[in-house]
Amino acid sequence: MTEQTKANLAAAVFFAACLLPAAGMLLPERTAAANQALAPPPILTRPDGRWNPALLQDTADYIGDHFAFRQELITMQAALEAAVFHSSAEDSVLLGRDGWLFYQQTLPGYLHTQPMSERQLYAAAHTLALINEYAAAQGAYMLFTVAPNKCSLYPQYLPETGSPLPGASDIDRLLPLLAQEGVPYADLFAAFRAQPETLYFRLDSHWNTRGAALAHDTLTAVLGVDDPFFPGGFETVRSHRGDLYEMLYPAGSALDEDIRFDRPFTFTHVGQPRSPEAQRIETEQPARSGSLLMFRDSFGNSLYPFMAESYGHAIFSRAMPYPLSLLEGADTLVIELVERNLDWLSSRAPIFPAPLRGLTGEPLQGSAQAQLHAADDGQLPGFHRIEGALTGAVDVQSPIYVRFGDTLYEACPSGTGTAYPFTLYVPESLAANQAQILYLADGILHTALPPTEAAP
Q1: Are 327 and 135 in contact (CB under 8 A)?
Q2: What mean pLDDT is reported for the chain?
Q3: Whether the Cβ atoms of residue 335 and residue 142 lie closer than 8 Å to each other
Q4: What pLDDT, on a 0 to 100 scale, did the predictor assign at position 17?
Q5: Would you give the distance in Å from CA 183 to the centre of its chain?
Q6: I want to staple 436 with a disulfide (CB 3.0 to 4.6 A). Which of 42, 360, 403, 430 is the partner?
Q7: Domain ranges of the chain
C-alpha cells in the first residue's frame, strides 16, 4: 500500500468518524438520561409568525444535545476521568468512597458553609405553624418531616471534603423553633441513624425501598396508624438505576441493590399516574380508613405506595408552594421535604387565605420601610396575592401583619427579596394601597412607614 493510499484511507476514516454522529441522528434516539432536559428542535418562525432570530443558536443547541452516540461518548469520558483522575465529569455528582455517589448540592449543608439565616429559620418554622393552624381549622392533623440528605447519614463514604464548620446543621437549628411554634414533627434522622444497615442507595441520592418503609413506619407511628412494614420479609433484587449514576454515566448499565417486600401493595390508583414523579397521585385502599393529603418531593416516589396502603383515600402532591385548597376532605396532612431544600419554606409561601387577627390598642409608629406588590395569580379564586418586604429594625422572630381599615391579617413571613419578605392572600375587594404593615421591634408592635409599590 502506497503512502498516498494510506493517507487517503486515514482521511476517509477521519471524515467517516466525524460524519457518524450526524448520520446516526437518523436512527431512533435514546431517551434522555435522568432528569436531563434536551433542547427542542429549532423553529424558523415564532408563534406570532415573525422570524426566529435565534435560529442558528437553537440549531446548535439541538445538535449538541441530540447527535448520535452522545450519551455513549459522555459515559466513556466520565468513566475515564473517574478511573484516571478520580474526578467527576458531572458538576452535580460527587465521587465518594467505595463507589458511592453523592449529590453535590448537599455538600454545603453537611459542611455548614451556607447556613440559613436566623430569620429564614424563624420564617420556615412560623410558616409551618400557620399551615398547622389552617389545617386544624379544617379538621385535619398536620405532621412535618424532613428526608435526610444522604451525606448527613453516611458521611463515612464522602471523599476528602474537609470537616464541617463549627455549629449545628440547619435542621438541628430548626428543631427548637418547631417546638416553640408547636409544629408536630417526625424525626427521620433519629429513625435512620438507629438502624445498623444502609438504607440509602449507593448510586442514587434517595433512600431505598427499605428506607421508604422505615420512613412510613416512623410517620404512621406518630400519626397513630398501626400498619408497620419494617423490617418485614423481603427478597433482595438488583433492579434500581440510580439517578446520580445516570447523570454521570447516561449509557451505563450498573444497577443498585434493592429489596422487594413479601407483602404486596393492594391499594388502587384513581387514574393511573404517568410515573412516581407525577405531580398528583390519588389512591384508594378500601381496607383502611382515613383521608390523607401529602405534599412530597422526589423522596415520595418510593414512599407514597406505603402511605397509600395505610389510608382509605390519599392525594400525593408535588406542588410547591403548597396549595392548601387540596386539604378539603382530608383528616391528615403530611409535609415531607428533603433537608437540602429547607430554605424553600422561607421563600415559597403556601397558598391559603391569610388568617384574621385581633388588635388591642394602637401600635407605635416605627421606622421600618415597607414595599408591597399585589397580583391576581389565579391560585386562589376570589383572592389577591400580596407580596411585600420590610427593611429596617425588625425583630428576627417578628410576625408580620397587614391591616386594611379595622381588619388585621397575618402574613406568612416567607417570600423572595430582602431580609424580611412576607406573603399573604386577601379578598380581592381589598386594595394593596390601603394596607398598613405592622411588625415587632424590641418586642413592641410598630407600624411601618407607608408602603411603596414594589416591582412585581
Answers
A1: yes
A2: 89
A3: yes
A4: 46
A5: 20
A6: 403
A7: 3-99, 116-160+167-347, 356-453
User: What's the confidence (pLDDT) of residue 13?
Assistant: 44
Q: Which three cell numbers stand for residue 198?
A: 444502609
Tens-digit pLDDT profile for residues 399-437: 999 999 999 999 999 998 778 999 999 999 997 788 999
Q: What is the pLDDT of residues 158-181, one digit of tens each?
A: 999 989 999 999 999 999 999 999
pTM (predicted TM-score): 0.85
- Provide the grid cell at 69: 452516540
**Region for residue 386 given its phi and psi (left: phi exceeds 0; alpha: psi -120 to 50; beta: otherwise):** beta
Range 356-453: architecture per CATH? Sandwich (2.60)
